[in-house]
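Hi F.,

I've been meaning to write this up properly since the lab meeting, where we talked about keeping a consistent format for the predictions we share between groups. The idea is simple: the sequence comes first, exactly as it goes in, then the structure tokens exactly as they come out, then a line or two of notes. No screenshots and no reformatting. I'm using this chain as the first example so we have something concrete to point to.
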Amino acid sequence: MYKVFVNDKPFFLTNQIVKETDFQLFLLESTDIKKLVINMFNNKIKKCYLYYPDEKVILKKLKEKIPVQRAGGGLVYNKKGEVLFIFRNGKWDLPKGGKEKREKMKLTAMREVEEETGVNKLTITKKLQKTYHIFKRNGIYKLKITNWYEMQSAYEGIPVGQAEEGIEKVAWLNPEQIKEAMQNSYENIKLLFEEEKLLR
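Output, unedited:
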């Protein structure tokens, strides 16, 4: 099952029909994805299942219906065990950005962390889960698939937010501050911290 967010509201790509649920059910094969997404953006649909019988190709089927943008991002720790956050559009987020042509995804993630925060001396320690969300740019809805990596940084300077990307501030947050930041973050980011067992 895949969890895709539209404005922090989830839809699940599933090959199982769940009975007795408050989720609306749509058939992936015949659903107008754009119409569904608009209804979610306008709060007409809060959460739903998109059903397709074969789980192996379910994501491929969604990609046939909506343009895909690939991105890479980092959950970056410093020597003190704090995590690097950016504050943008009124929410706490992690540095990430779009993949360039022929660029390896790991390099995308490291480049974006450095560009958005000024933090370098990065080492990837492990691959994390991918996250999925739908956004609108220039009137077109796209599915953003972000590959996340856990990283360590030996950087000791002061991080600086990339102004042209609308980053208002950059901060290293400790576990207590992370819990607070999660009250004002995105569902995809919360998923990463749940995976990392940092939210208890």
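Notes:
The mean pLDDT is 94.
The helical segments are 33-41, 58-63, 105-117, 175-182, 187-195.

If this format works for you, I'll send the rest the same way.

G.
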